[in-house]
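About this split. The held-out portion is used to measure sequence recovery: a designer receives only the structure tokens and must propose an amino acid at every position. Recovery is the fraction of positions where the proposal matches the reference. Here is one held-out target exactly as it appears in the evaluation file.
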């Protein structure tokens, strides 16, 4: 009997590691529940800021990378107002276009680049997501000089543009912008329906300073003039103030006083280089226009020197910080996030040098564009999120592994994406509730060594999955929904 008991105890001891291993394999560090019945904001697409001044043949491969590999579907195309625009008034009547003047102006290289690049984007499917953005100061005759602020980071050159907008020149600036939009639509046959008219009007080094009252007055004039010239379908994205706090406290209330303006507002536009810090979603929902959506028309993680042409370390740390901000913004209601910026470019307005924010770096000697780590990190979301995708609820999250989920009923997909900010490998186990059954999941991640790397170490069923997420990585699960009874193969 004792010998038998010893054998039994020995057997249990031998089996114990096996039982423990089975338990360890089934144990998850993070358990999440993804509920399709919790319908959040519709995603209008992930996008890029793109400077039209960079347009030439060498830019096409860069645009193709952003369009095809990264699936960028919202394009904020930059047309600078600083130089070579209406440096001399077209005539003395802001309500009568001098088309002899404008026809000649818009055939100059500055504008031909803009039209050709927008046409290229049109030809590659970017129409609804094409947003014309006017960036920089007004022509010098339209504005007054103001004393630089002590906090101004750049030396201001007063010869290129006005630092304020004279009230008597508001209609002239409206005419200048509408003439471009009219020419683009009716002469160049560019397809677009969004305009971003004023950029960071609270920052003297970025634009002519326009306060909330004048801002709203200008937008109303722009809306009326577009309607009078057959551009009533073009809607506004704004106010695009540098400070998101100032934007919501001062500029939005002024715009919301005018129902005509609000009828033509497509989306509120905000900027942030510090992540989600001001809770615009709650402010909007508590306003007179709770159904308005908001876009982050500029976002990145701040790095000193990039505006002045000084390179930084474009490593995974920088890219992951930027992408963590992207996840924050989506989780808190942003319908689109447009990264600053698509590729390195030269700018006319201060500090009038190369901006090196690009997710594609530019080699000025070889005239070639190369993806930086940002490109791959952001692609972990942009590649899989199509316009019309709906963000859905995720519960039981654990700190250190930020997760968002989406249901794409058009392309029949469920997408789960997140970032592991810890130094530990984590097992994530998820269940899908109130969602279609899954035919298959594919697992991709980006870390310091890998770029949108497909990892086959994944187990899943029709309503569940389990993955092992490497330390310090951005990851995505791309799930194909089971349709019309195709043969389901469980991995």
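Reference sequence for scoring:
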């Amino acid at each position: 009997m004792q010998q038998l008991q010893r054998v039994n105890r020995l057997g249990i001891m031998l089996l114990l590691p096996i039982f423990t291993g089975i338990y360890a394999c089934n144990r998850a560090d993070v358990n999440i529940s993804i509920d399709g019945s919790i319908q959040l904001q519709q995603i209008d697409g992930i996008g890029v800021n793109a400077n039209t001044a960079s347009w030439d043949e060498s830019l096409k491969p860069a645009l193709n990378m952003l369009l095809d590999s990264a699936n960028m579907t919202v394009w904020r195309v930059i047309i600078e107002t600083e130089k070579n625009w209406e440096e001399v008034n077209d005539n003395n009547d802001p309500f009568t276009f001098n088309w002899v003047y404008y026809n000649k102006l818009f055939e100059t290289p500055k504008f031909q680049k803009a039209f050709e690049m927008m046409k290229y984007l049109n030809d590659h499917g970017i129409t609804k997501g094409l947003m014309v953005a006017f960036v920089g100061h007004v022509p010098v005759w339209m504005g007054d000089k103001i004393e630089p602020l002590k906090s101004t980071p750049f030396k201001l050159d007063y010869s290129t543009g006005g630092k304020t907008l004279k009230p008597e020149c508001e209609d002239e600036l409206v005419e200048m912008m509408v003439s471009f939009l009219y020419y683009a639509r009716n002469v160049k046959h560019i397809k677009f329906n969004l305009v971003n008219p004023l950029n960071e009007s609270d920052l003297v080094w970025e634009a002519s300073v326009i306060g909330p009252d004048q801002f709203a007055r200008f937008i109303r004039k722009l809306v009326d003039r577009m309607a009078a010239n057959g551009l009533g379908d073009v809607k506004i994205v704004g106010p695009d103030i540098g400070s998101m706090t100032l934007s919501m406290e001062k500029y939005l209330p002024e715009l919301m006083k005018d129902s005509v303006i609000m009828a033509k507002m497509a989306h509120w536009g905000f900027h942030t280089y510090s992540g989600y810090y001001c809770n615009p979603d709650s402010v909007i929902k508590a306003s007179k226009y709770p159904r308005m959506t908001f876009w982050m028309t500029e976002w990145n993680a701040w790095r000193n020197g990039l505006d002045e042409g000084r390179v930084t370390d474009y490593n995974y740390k920088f890219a992951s910080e930027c992408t963590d901000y992207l996840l924050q913004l989506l989780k808190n209601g942003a319908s689109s996030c447009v990264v600053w910026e698509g590729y390195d470019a030269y700018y006319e307005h201060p500090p009038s040098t190369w901006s090196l924010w690009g997710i594609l770096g530019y080699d000025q000697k070889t005239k070639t564009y190369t993806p930086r780590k940002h490109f791959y990190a952001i692609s972990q979301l942009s590649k899989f999120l199509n316009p019309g995708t709906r963000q859905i609820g995720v519960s039981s999250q654990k700190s250190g592994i930020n997760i968002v989920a989406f249901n794409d009923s058009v392309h029949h997909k469920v997408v789960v994406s997140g970032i592991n900010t810890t130094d530990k490998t984590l097992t994530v186990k998820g269940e899908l509730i109130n969602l279609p059954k899954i035919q298959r999941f594919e697992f991709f991640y980006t870390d310091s060594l890998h770029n949108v790397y497909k990892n086959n170490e994944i187990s899943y069923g029709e309503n569940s999955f389990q993955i092992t997420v490497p330390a310090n990585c951005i990851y995505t699960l791309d799930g194909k929904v089971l349709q019309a009874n195709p043969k389901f193969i469980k991995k």
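Annotator remark: The longest strand covers residues 30-43.
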